[in-house]
C-alpha cells in the first residue's frame, strides 16, 4: 500500500543509503509519512468505534517486533 514499498526494494533503498544518495532520505521520509498517516487514520477509526484500548494494545505489541 505504501508507494515507496511498492516501487522500490529494501535492498535498493539500502544501497542508496550506503552510497550517500539523497534519494534515500526522500524515500525514507515518504515511507515514514505514509506510515504515520495510516497509523493516525487507524487510531481515529478506533476512537470513533470506542475501541482505542484494543487498538493501542495490538499496535504496541506489533511494534515490539
Structural overview:
The chain is an all-alpha fold and 65 residues long. The mean pLDDT is 97. The chain is elongated and about 45 Å long. It has one domain. Helix content is 83%, strand content 0%. It has four helices and no strands. The two termini are 20 Å apart. The longest helix is centred in the middle third of the chain and has 27 residues, at 22-48. This is tRNA guanosine(34) transglycosylase Tgt. One of its GO terms (cellular component) is cytosol. Keywords: tRNA processing.
List the defining traits of the structure above.
single chain; 65 residues; elongated
Low-confidence stretches: none
Helical percent range? over 70%
The oligomeric state of the chains shown is: single chain
Number of helices: 4
Give the N-terminus to C-terminus distance in angstroms.
20 Å
Provide the gyration radius in Å: 15 Å
Which strand-content bin applies to the residues? under 5%
User: Main beta sheet, described?
Assistant: none
Number of domains: 1
The H/E string reads HHHH
Q: Give the strand tally.
A: 0
Mean pLDDT: 97
Shape: elongated
The chain-level structural class is mainly alpha
Secondary structure elements and their pairing?
Layout: H1 3-7, H2 10-18, H3 22-48, H4 52-64
Helix pairs in contact: 2-3, 3-4
Keywords: tRNA processing
Domain tRNA-guanine(15) transglycosylase-like: 1-57
InterPro entries: ArchSynthase1/Queuine_TRR, TGT-like_sf, tRNA_ribo_trans-like
Quick rundown:
By secondary structure, the protein is mostly helical. It has 4 helices and no strands.
Amino acid at each position: 500500500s505504501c508507494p515507496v514499498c511498492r516501487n522500490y526494494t529494501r535492498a535498493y533503498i539500502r544501497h542508496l543509503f550506503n552510497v550517500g544518495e539523497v534519494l534515500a532520505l526522500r524515500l525514507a521520509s515518504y515511507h515514514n509519512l505514509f506510515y504515520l498517516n495510516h497509523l493516525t487514520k487507524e487510531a481515529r477509526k478506533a476512537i470513533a468505534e470506542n475501541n482505542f484500548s484494543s487498538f493501542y494494545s495490538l499496535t504496541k505489541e506489533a511494534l515490539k517486533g
